[in-house]
Amino acid sequence: MNDGAVVAAHDVLIVGGGLAGLRAAIAVAETDPTLDVAVVSKVYPMRSHSVSAEGGAAGVAAADDSLEEHIYDTISGSDWLGDQDAIEAFVHEAPRELLRLEHWGCPWSRQPDGHIAVRAFGGMKKKRTWYAADKTGFHMLHALFQTTLKFREVTRYDEWFVTRLLVDDGRVHGLVAVDLHTGRIQAITAKSVVLANGGCGKVFPFTTNANINTGDGMALAFRAGAPLKDMEFVQYHPTGLPFSGILITEATRAEGGWLLNKDGYRYLQDYDLGKPTPTPELRSMELGPRDRISQAFVHEEEMGRTLDTPYGAVVHLDLRHLGAELIDARLPFVRELCLKYERIDPVTDLIPVRPVVHYMMGGVHTDVNGAAGLEGLYAAGETACVSINGANRLGSNSLPECLVFGARAGRAAAEHASGATAAPHVVAAQAADEARRIEHDLLDRVPWEEDVSTIRTEMQATMEESAGIYRTGEEMTKGADRLRELQERAKRIGVRDTSRTFNTELVGALELANLLDVAECMLASGMQREESRGAHQRTDFPSRDDEKFLVHQLVTRDSDGTPRVEQLPVTITRWPPGERIYGR
Amino acid sequence: MTGEAMERSATDTDLHYRRTPPVFWWTRKPSYFVFVMRELSSLFIAWLVLYLLLFVRAVGRGETAYADFLDWAASPWLVVLNVVAFAFVVLHTVTWFSLTPQAMVLQVGGRRVPPRAIIGAQYAALAVVSAFVLWLVTR
Amino acid sequence: MADADEIADKITDEITDEITMRVARYRPDKDRDPGWQEYTVPQREEWTVLDGLNHVKNEVDTTLAYRWSCRMGICGSCGMNVDGEPKLTCATFLSDYAPGPVTVEPLANFPVIRDLVVDISDFMEKLPRVSPWIIRDEEQSVDDGEYLQTPEELDAYKQFSMCINCMLCYAACPVYGLEPEFIGPAAIALAERYDLDSRDHGARQRLDVLIEEEGVYGCTFVGECTRVCPKHVDPAAAIQRYKLKAAQESVKMFLLPRALRR
Amino acid sequence: MKFRVEPFLWLAFSGGGVMAAIFLPVLAFLFALAFPLGWLDPPDHAHLAAVVGHPITFLVLFGAFVMMLVHAAHRFRFTLYDGLQVKHRFLVAAVCYGGAFLGTFVALHMLGSAT
Ligand SMILES: Cc1cc2nc3c(=O)[nH]c(=O)nc-3n(C[C@H](O)[C@H](O)[C@H](O)COP(=O)(O)OP(=O)(O)OC[C@H]3O[C@@H](n4cnc5c(N)ncnc54)[C@H](O)[C@@H]3O)c2cc1C
Ligand code: SF4
Ligand code: F3S
Ligand code: FES
């Protein structure tokens, strides 16, 4: 019967088979081999979005580099909103985690003497980004996934879609998921649950993110009563391909690529990002931070110095002077993508690019060990917000973040599970409830008054208008109203597909519900932050206001389902807020 | 949950649709067809070995047997068979040579020998062997 | 930034052509056998076959089921047989099939779960059998730094590490279609990837698996796996090289006198 | 390491493949086409008898022919098995390799008769 029956019990359940989730699973197995750990993922682990990361993963390795400097770059990159204790822990542990991945077989690019090679990256003062050509995420994920196969004690639920956390009395006891192959709605109990569901780029119409990045983890936590943090901070990557939104990695600029406006002029020099030099200069010009470069684009567009295409304005990324040999050695995937999707060759042609939604700084609020707001609940990776990224993430910090905090969350979840008791009986009733909700609300509703794709498109348009690179209070309020309406309409969605087998329309409907919740949180949080900081730029409050807003904002769910925003102090240890200076 | 829909739900892998390739699967794509032809060359190779053995036997049996054999070998059906067999042998040689570099990595002085060089070397060997055989039998 | 509607308008202006997609449908709870359904979709230069399917899903028929995610040819989910050839649909352009119709079927050789979704659990079970992870004689602590590996040593296995598990090679390999026990191209390529990795010492362990009937010697070098591989992994080469290696090892072990073995 | 026959069969198959690729074109051309059809004058019997009667020729031809037969048997086994889906694993193998085995004796006999 499709009644949400409890089909299995594990000690630790990991939701998500991306970098963060798999790292957490191994951490559990290593912490206590007697624990029974399982990974639940809506796609096969190697399909997770980590696979598309291109540029690299930061970790201090070079002799001329220091932990202090990586810490400082990350803090100033975060516009001082990152928690400094978390950043310290992160920077200290990142190199070790990256080395561990090396031991697990990741094919990192090397120097001639066999040591790890590092490249420059935006906002970083030293070369410290480890890379595997320009398929870093792909190689990291596959090496990690293949390594987890070695741990026979890790059970996998592939293509199971998690719809709800089972919570009793402030404690998490497991989850409910749809087994996509059979359509069965089933409950799995656990003593600890780690959310590693990745990001939510699909809130926006134009994103580098994959189709599966629908903020499920954030929505699951939010609905279970755990707070989300800093949801207003959405990173735009300056160089996405028009139409598809496919990412052209920052590594192109680290290797020496230039951004040109329609006059062939390196326009970043007009935006306080330093002076153009023929070879790339760290923390300057094209190697400035993403928020500032994306903002410069908007100004160029306003001044009519961009080029028009059917898919919006673009500027050009120029790699021609790098030569075929370097491009083939270090950026082969970029060449492949350009040839395939734009039918141009970066060796001889300019690449049209525009800013594109790329990464969520915000997410499930956790402490430095990944503990989220409820007992037994942990979160890591892009779905979580520890926060090391603050108001703006530095490129190449998020892959190591997945490893460092995935491992920490895994260890903490393991420890918690060792001491915890089995799930109480009430959760079975909750699971049955959830099964009934899905069956009734989504699958049995005839006639179908609304459908998934219309509402999704309207939501995405709303978010683009109200939460773009530049925002105003007015736009966000309007957007929030629209989202309320869409939430109401979404209640009338019916799934036309009545088959239980691999019902992707049902998945779409469940994802849409998550997207809407996450979008609402973004706007609710954004409206409250009356300042401009990092990726949150308000034309009605153009400057940073440390007095009032050097704080995190937590969004929790009110009893009526609407988001409520509270403040939480930022942890500042040794680096008092200062000015973000690039190129000087 | 409505009972009826439930009955019909896929419960297991036994509802998966399994497709088995038809016997003549290799007629569906040119590349499959070439593959099967390549594999069929084996029959003709076996035939040619037999034929050459018969030839040798005839030579061993004396001058008349040899002449008779040559006559027999010129009979139309045998000529047709041998022309076909020869074509298959050529197919075998060409495909075998072109696949070798894929199956074998040769290192010379720490460097990988490029596929073209391997293919070239095989044709060179073919030429030398052919010339030698020709010289040996017609000397 | 340009207004979303404005973009949409410009885009609709551009639509001149249409193409018919013949899509295989199979709903196990309704159909005994797969059938065909035709959809006409706009055909634009930058549209991939996947964009066509998404158009159908969003605008025409919400019940069509297929997998996709990254839409940039790296996650490996969107493999289907397009006009009979296994393809990544996100990297295959509709315009290449103009004027159509273009047929889209689930990947060949795998059981069909539903519409265009196939069951790849067979591969997922085979993969661990070839031990695709670093096996060391002696573990070295991370505190002692990285295992050194020169760029040349990296190059030795790099190509075989590019596999995205998209399963196109399995769909193209007739041997796998006929003999589902065959471990198959991608799994063997991954075994070879670790064997060739200078950090790995697990060749022996993998050999014992791959020398079995369903291992490398099941492959008859059809070579289709390599031809369809979107990531230029060349699994056919991996398998043949493995055969040679396994044969050399066998000769060494069982024919040579003890003194001559390495 | 486990003992399996498959690697040895494959080695023989490959060796035979090389032999066939290099030797057979010229042999087939000369003896199956060019001489019988008179494109080239057939060599006189005495010369040919001397060549095939030589022990080295015997060894070379015997080795090459046996390898080619094993090659053919191995390949044909898979052609039957996969190409034509004759799904009797053991029977097919027995017939094919049995054929090659028989061929070996025939070769020994016929080549021997010429020396
Ligand atoms: C194109 C691109 C390039 C990037 N390049 C870089 C880079 O160079 N350097 C860098 O540091 N960062 C980069 N990033 C960011 C980085 O890749 C991501 O932040 C990171 O990979 C996220 O990993 P994750 O483990 O948190 O989530 P993911 O890898 O996204 O995994 C999420 C997992 O959760 C599962 N899941 C989600 N929802 C559910 C549900 N409801 N039920 C069950 N399972 C579920 C999914 O199946 C999946 O397995 C890039 C991002 C993009 C989009
Ligand atoms: S070898 Fe190529 S075709 Fe096969 S799964 Fe890997 S990437 Fe796909
Ligand atoms: S197509 Fe199949 S038979 Fe071998 S060479 Fe490739 S695995
Ligand atoms: S959608 Fe990821 S490979 Fe096509």
UniProtKB/TrEMBL annotation, chain A:
<keyword id="KW-0547">Nucleotide-binding</keyword>
<dbReference type="InterPro" id="IPR015939">
    <property type="entry name" value="Fum_Rdtase/Succ_DH_flav-like_C"/>
</dbReference>
<keyword id="KW-0560">Oxidoreductase</keyword>
<dbReference type="InterPro" id="IPR030664">
    <property type="entry name" value="SdhA/FrdA/AprA"/>
</dbReference>
<keyword id="KW-0813">Transport</keyword>
<keyword id="KW-0274">FAD</keyword>
<protein>
    <recommendedName>
        <fullName>Fumarate reductase flavoprotein subunit</fullName>
        <ecNumber>1.3.5.1</ecNumber>
    </recommendedName>
</protein>
<dbReference type="InterPro" id="IPR003953">
    <property type="entry name" value="FAD-dep_OxRdtase_2_FAD-bd"/>
</dbReference>
<keyword id="KW-0249">Electron transport</keyword>
<comment type="subunit">
    <text>Part of an enzyme complex containing four subunits: a flavoprotein (FrdA), an iron-sulfur protein (FrdB), and two hydrophobic anchor proteins (FrdC and FrdD).</text>
</comment>
<dbReference type="InterPro" id="IPR003952">
    <property type="entry name" value="FRD_SDH_FAD_BS"/>
</dbReference>
<dbReference type="Pfam" id="PF02910">
    <property type="entry name" value="Succ_DH_flav_C"/>
</dbReference>
<dbReference type="InterPro" id="IPR014006">
    <property type="entry name" value="Succ_Dhase_FrdA_Gneg"/>
</dbReference>
<comment type="similarity">
    <text>Belongs to the FAD-dependent oxidoreductase 2 family. FRD/SDH subfamily.</text>
</comment>
<keyword id="KW-0472">Membrane</keyword>
UniProtKB/TrEMBL annotation, chain B:
<keyword id="KW-0472">Membrane</keyword>
<feature type="transmembrane region" description="Helical">
    <location>
        <begin position="77"/>
        <end position="97"/>
    </location>
</feature>
<keyword id="KW-1133">Transmembrane helix</keyword>
<feature type="transmembrane region" description="Helical">
    <location>
        <begin position="117"/>
        <end position="137"/>
    </location>
</feature>
<dbReference type="Pfam" id="PF02300">
    <property type="entry name" value="Fumarate_red_C"/>
</dbReference>
<dbReference type="InterPro" id="IPR034804">
    <property type="entry name" value="SQR/QFR_C/D"/>
</dbReference>
<feature type="transmembrane region" description="Helical">
    <location>
        <begin position="32"/>
        <end position="56"/>
    </location>
</feature>
<keyword id="KW-0812">Transmembrane</keyword>
<keyword id="KW-1003">Cell membrane</keyword>
<dbReference type="InterPro" id="IPR003510">
    <property type="entry name" value="Fumarate_red_C"/>
</dbReference>
<protein>
    <submittedName>
        <fullName>Fumarate reductase subunit C</fullName>
    </submittedName>
</protein>
UniProtKB/TrEMBL annotation, chain C:
<keyword id="KW-0408">Iron</keyword>
<dbReference type="InterPro" id="IPR006058">
    <property type="entry name" value="2Fe2S_fd_BS"/>
</dbReference>
<dbReference type="InterPro" id="IPR017900">
    <property type="entry name" value="4Fe4S_Fe_S_CS"/>
</dbReference>
<dbReference type="InterPro" id="IPR025192">
    <property type="entry name" value="Succ_DH/fum_Rdtase_N"/>
</dbReference>
<dbReference type="InterPro" id="IPR004489">
    <property type="entry name" value="Succ_DH/fum_Rdtase_Fe-S"/>
</dbReference>
<dbReference type="InterPro" id="IPR036010">
    <property type="entry name" value="2Fe-2S_ferredoxin-like_sf"/>
</dbReference>
<keyword id="KW-0816">Tricarboxylic acid cycle</keyword>
<keyword id="KW-0003">3Fe-4S</keyword>
<keyword id="KW-0479">Metal-binding</keyword>
<dbReference type="InterPro" id="IPR001041">
    <property type="entry name" value="2Fe-2S_ferredoxin-type"/>
</dbReference>
<feature type="domain" description="2Fe-2S ferredoxin-type">
    <location>
        <begin position="17"/>
        <end position="110"/>
    </location>
</feature>
<comment type="pathway">
    <text>Carbohydrate metabolism; tricarboxylic acid cycle.</text>
</comment>
<keyword id="KW-0001">2Fe-2S</keyword>
<keyword id="KW-0560">Oxidoreductase</keyword>
<feature type="domain" description="4Fe-4S ferredoxin-type">
    <location>
        <begin position="154"/>
        <end position="183"/>
    </location>
</feature>
